[in-house]
């Protein structure tokens, strides 16, 4: 069985890696006024944050066009027997449901949609694992079983500079945002039940990041082989420094660096930092 792996752009997997692993990507969109841009195709993270600084209003975001999903599955049906389509969390986007709906339109292609319940390169971990398995001939059932196994240890925590982005975008409650801005809180956020929630309210960025490192250390200190990713928006130097420190402290962990792209950056804002991981 030939199985294609599809994901959306919010996994932020570099194009060269997507190409080498035969990963098919469907872009979400960021919208400035009347102008819409496909992230990772028509606008980069750097271009996006430059544009945001020039705007008075935050951009809006939208999931991949339904027609584009149908077209992608149609193309893949000519070469593949099945598709595993891995989306960002269904709690913050309708992309997963669109994958399910579009997949049901095909009789000659088995489409299995998978809700990562998370986003960014932590979602990418699922995609990369699935692509490596598909390259070795694994079918949807085997791949989904592995992804479910990964989900038991996958986790991510992040810190944002401005809660207003999340609140205005409807990804965090108004009350949480108000309390955060009032007290100048830098909360540690995470995904819980597919939603972005405040995990702990902490006063400073330094303390927030220290708490994230503690949460990571509770797992990494056990010595099991792990993969981790430091995620940033416009803070590459800080991300590299964090990755180096963690790598030195935990040689059992393979650590990489990624970024919050335009769509997720719309909700988190510039200056955000995050750390995600799973036990191999």
Task: Summarize the helices and strands and which ones pair or pack.
Blueprint (H helix, E strand, L loop, with lengths): L2 E6 L6 H7 L1 E4 L2 E4 L2 E4 L6 H10 L5 E3 L3 H12 L4 E6 L7 H9 L6 E6 L4 H16 L4 H12 L3 E5 L4 H5 L5 H9 L5 E5 L2 E6 L4 H16 L5 E7 L3 H14 L3 E7 L2 H7 L4 E7 L1
Parallel strand pairs: 1-2, 1-6, 6-7, 11-12
Antiparallel strand pairs: 3-4, 3-5, 8-9, 8-13, 9-10, 11-13
Give structural notes:
The chain is an alpha/beta fold and 280 residues long. 42% of the residues lie in helices and 25% in strands. It has eleven helices and 13 strands. It has a six-stranded mixed β-sheet, with helices on both faces. Strands 2-1-6-7 form a four-stranded parallel β-sheet, sandwiched between helices. A three-stranded antiparallel β-sheet has the order 4-3-5, with helices on one face. Helix 4 links the parallel strand 6 and strand 7. Helix 3 crosses helix 4 and helix 5 packs antiparallel against helix 6. The longest helix has 16 residues. It starts with a strand and ends with a strand. The mean pLDDT is 92.
